[in-house]
Specification:
The structure is a homodimer. Chain A is an alpha+beta fold. Chain A contains seven helices and 15 strands. In chain A, the strands form five sheets. In chain A, strands 4-3-2-1-7 form a five-stranded mixed β-sheet, with helices on one face. In chain A, a hairpin with a 2-residue loop joins strand 3 and strand 4. The longest helix of chain A has 22 residues. The two termini of chain A are about 45 Å apart.
Chain lengths: ~400, ~400
């Protein structure tokens, strides 16, 4: 192989379910998992078929039908299957380096765990049990990764968003951070990252803000690979943090919802140009992305333009409770750099081609590759493209 | 000595400033510290004198006058003095066991630290610097305590209340817990406890709820001392947790404000009979014990009787965001035991004699013992007893 290393994804892939968007078309050699979360459950196919589970390029079944998940009991063996997939891959009898991306989804509502973990958490919720099972799986994976001491393995643990507070006490918590998933407050975006590097630098804790986009450049940097300068990349290498816990130059993190830049963080400071919590028609249904929180003119149910922009010092106030008054010296000393950084970003931005504007029930997972062999093909409805509507 | 061990308190003692209430009159052999926090600062003595600092039975000076604290710069050497006091006590050339109570107060507003720590915290606040200095001091104290490996030392680290959110972003955070000091929500009462026991049990994390009142019985249990059965004690021994991380029988924790029982916790469940946040006349002044929080009819500015009582599952919902509806099975299955436990407590309670009902400026720290020798005596105003008023 040209790359000199092998690659596998185990678990959820949510960057497109159509064949041209699947992992094997985007650099992965192997895949075991599904092109969406397990939450969609359609006995009658009214909203679309159950999500298929792939083994490489062919499906081996569908959630609920073949990969059993008992939503009432919160019971499924699927995380255990994903742990086995990871262990088999790590333990293969080859010296070739590997890249393994392991993405379990049992903590997404409706949460599930296997019999061994069910009712094992002190909170006795399906979510707590699922967290414990993932924790146990990570322990097994780490142990396997550490076994061959000649390998200079890097393990990175992180998450794609803050806890979904919309699930109330059935799911996670964002600790002191404001609001949850779906919002541009810290509870929506900020997640911890823990890494272990076999031959790497000293233990330490860093307060630097990074993003998942940094991983590509960091790993390229680590292995001495020069990424082509022709491609535009939004991340940066954070190798100096992993190596020496260095303080890096401040690098902006942008908080988008759709095409609108709501907020930006640079070092200690975060500025909000727009704020929003939950639309009123969702609140009426009991859906709330910011439960129990109220800050006048900030935690608004409409998209609120902030003029002047809100500013927080996240080192001092990670919970975004105390906006710095715009007459304060601290505000005046920092606002210009923040505005300039955002302007530069906007002027240099190369917009991607929108791919989430048109929807069509006919292109859902009716007849994914491999469905014939296992008798899981479904007849798609007639094509009826329409402009997608994303309620949040 | 009859007890067979030596005892010292270093730091704040807040159980009475008059001679009969001081540490040496209540079992301590030595004291270095003050009978209140440092925050009272009265150049003109209008509200009362600066708090005196004692070395055993005599004062050696007063805060601000002799123990320098620069409130503007957040600078004082006082924590370092307290660290030295602790180290000198631990390192004394004697095999006698010791009990040391170390109670620094630099994290209480207005926070201070010594030059070495000032501006050293990433949040760059006096509070952050003070936390770092206490952390550094604890490191030195632990190191000293661990030096003599033949000693079976137990070290307990804890706090007297949750973060004072009233100080806004100048002080601490209660993470996911609701509200702060002054309230009967978890942010007011719940604090972590960390212990290290030289010859003790295995490492572990316990979710049991204890209270500082448990320490007396725990230590008596540890050393095999039978406390007299004639005294009424509210704690219990938590030795099985320290020894084997055992699960104990559920033991109630009572949340009082004054004489009113607001809430009670038993195992996973907490019940609130009354709730309250901040009185309106304090809110008007910008004082807020529950900033940024709003839950209708719960986070009220008046004392709100809850009928039916509110119930939370703290294992699932430590942030008290999701009261269990009283029509739910979980509520109905638990409310009777909670009510019965509170009734039993009330019927068995032996009320103490009130000591905080009458106030008198004449009995403040005007002329504490030892003031003559250092010329720090002040003339008390004429005695004018009045009914105390505690705004919160």
């Amino acid at each position: 192989m040209k790359s000199g290393y092998r690659t596998k994804i185990v678990g959820k892939w949510h960057l497109g379910h159509r064949e041209q968007f699947l992992p094997l078309q985007h650099g992965f050699q192997e895949w075991f998992g599904a092109p969406n979360c397990h939450f969609q459950y359609n006995v009658t196919w009214r909203q679309g078929p159950n999500i298929p589970v792939y083994n490489n390029s062919l499906i081996i079944g569908r959630y609920y039908e073949d990969i059993k998940i008992d939503r009432g009991l919160g019971l499924s063996n699927y995380t255990q299957i994903m742990v086995e997939q990871a262990l088999e891959y790590i333990n293969r009898d080859t010296e070739e380096p590997y890249f393994l991306y392991w993405a379990p989804d049992s903590t997404h509502a409706p949460s599930y765990s296997s019999k061994k973990y069910l009712h094992s958490s002190i909170r006795d919720s399906y979510y707590g049990d699922a967290v414990r099972e993932i924790d146990g799986g990570i322990g097994q994976i780490l142990k396997a990764a550490k076994k061959d001491k000649s390998r200079d393995t890097l393990v990175v643990f992180t998450s794609d968003n803050g806890a979904a507070l919309v699930s109330k006490d059935l799911a996670g918590s964002n600790g002191p951070l404001l609001c949850g998933k779906q919002t541009t407050f810290e509870g929506g975006f900020r997640v911890p990252t823990i890494s272990w590097w076999a031959h790497g630098g000293p233990r330490g804790v860093s307060s630097e803000a990074g993003s998942h986009m940094d991983l590509l450049q960091t790993i390229a940097h680590m292995v001495g690979y020069n990424l082509p300068s022709s491609i535009v990349l939004d991340g940066r290498s954070i190798l100096p943090i992993l190596k020496n816990n260095s303080k890096l130059e401040d690098h902006p993190v942008f908080y988008y919802r759709g095409n609108l830049l709501y907020a930006m963080r640079l070092g200690a400071y975060k500025v909000h140009w727009y704020t929003w919590t939950t639309p009123p028609y969702e609140l009426d249904k009991g859906i709330d992305f910011c439960p129990g929180v109220y800050m006048p003119n900030i935690t608004t149910t409409h998209i609120q333009k902030q003029e002047p922009p809100l500013m927080y010092n996240l080192y001092r106030d990670p919970g975004e409770k105390y906006p710095i008054p715009n007459k304060y010296k601290e505000y005046r000393a920092n606002i210009q750099l923040l505005e300039d950084t955002a302007s530069k970003h906007k002027s240099e931005l190369v917009p991607g081609k929108p791919v989430l504007e048109m929807c069509d029930q006919a292109v859902m997972n009716w007849s994914p590759p491999g469905c014939e062999a296992i008798n899981r093909c479904l007849k798609p409805p007639p094509s009826k493209p329409y402009t997608c509507y994303w309620p949040h």
